[in-house]
Amino acid sequence: LFAIGNEVIARTGEDVGARWQPPKCEASPVMVQADELYLSMAIRNLLDNGHKYGGGLDNLQVHVSSEGEDAVLTVTDNGGGVDEKDIARIFDPFQRGRTSPNIAGFGLGLSFARDIARAHGGNLNYRSADHGATFVLRIPLSDDKDRPS
Prior knowledge:
Layout: H1 2-16, H2 36-53, E1 61-67, E2 70-76, H3 109-119, E3 123-128, E4 133-140
Antiparallel strand pairs: 1-2, 2-4, 3-4
Helix pairs in contact: 1-2, 2-3
């Protein structure tokens, strides 16, 4: 998960231009058995969400860890967070935050990211942060220690 996260961050940096100094995933590698393409898409959707609603890519913090039997990737931003009224529906398809109607999008990124996590036996949740929002992606750890993350 660590390697995939860093690769997605680097590609995101290339997409937005050289002016962005992408954060590195903090932590040591954790192994998951996952479809790299889809897991990359889920992480990219979390980065895009933080970019749009969380004060830009420069304000993102990405962390990888293991907790129990799960690999955990968190993306924390410094935006306004999610309105209490929106928390229950932010992962529903075509739902967008009411506090930022001027931001382009279809309201599918978080829905797709959660579907991808669940297809891998994991989940994606929102956690309120002091400032901004934190999205927590959980994927079961791999039993096979020789597989790449």
